[in-house]
Every structure is written in structure tokens, then in C-alpha cells.
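agent> step 3/5: call structure_predict on target 'Ras-related protein' (Musa troglodytarum).
agent> reason: downstream docking stage needs a structural representation; sequence fetched in step 2, passing through unchanged.
tool.input:
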Amino acid sequence: MATTANSSINAKLVLLGDMGTGKSSLVLRFVKGQFLEFQESTIGAAFFSQTLAVGDATVKFEIWDTAGQERYHSLAPMYYRGAAAAIIVYDISSSESFERAKKWVQELQKQGNPNMVRALAGNKCDLEDKRKVTTEVIPVPDKF
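tool.output (status=ok):
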């Protein structure tokens, strides 16, 4: 995260998670205020930026929306390297995507920036009737 004299902060943000978890939908909602019912799969990664006023500061997010297909997994370190924050996204109607999200957390703990802010996001809450991931609170490792 870089700060300039006029309270301007640049922050690299990366979204990680399985294909179909809604990473691109989250980014589009944040950046453009849009939701598309049918979203094409991301190939490699997509880049967006969004600037927000937070208190007296201006924060410019440089957002990397990564592809969730396994064949692109080896590219992920290139995107999360140097990131100030990561959002690991899973689909609440897919226990497999939640298990994979745990692996992303472990990878970031081992290889990511130790000061990186990490968030776990359960997405597709409109599919509550198809929920496969419990809402039970579980202990989170100290380093998460």
C-alpha cells in the first residue's frame, strides 16, 4: 500500500476462489454498481480500479479478479504478490468451493504478504435454500 502526501492511498486488492463463486460479480457491483445474471468466466485475470473517499483520505483500489479454473492456479502468485488485501470467495451452495477457499487461505499464509488483510466471503446468499456451507462459527487460525 502506497501513501502520498495528500492522503492518497494506492491499495492492490486480489479476489481468489473457485470458478463460479461470483468473484467477477462482486467486483462489477463494487466498481460499476452492476449485476449481470450471466457472467462470462474470467480468463487469466481481469483488472479494475475504484477510488473511494475514506475519511480524509482517498483510496485507489487496484483490483485483480483472478480466474477460478484450476489451470490458472499457477498464475495466482503473480496477482497476489504485493497485494495489500485479498478476498477469498466461496459459494454458500458449494461445500467444495468452501474447502478450496480454505486452501487459498493456507496458500496466502505461506506465500502471501504477511501484512496482507485477508477476508473470507460467502457469496450467493440469494441461494439460501441451496446452502451447503453451514453458518456455524468455527475457530479461525491466528494468522488469518
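agent> step 4/5: record observation. DSSP finds three helices and six strands in the chain.
agent> proceeding.
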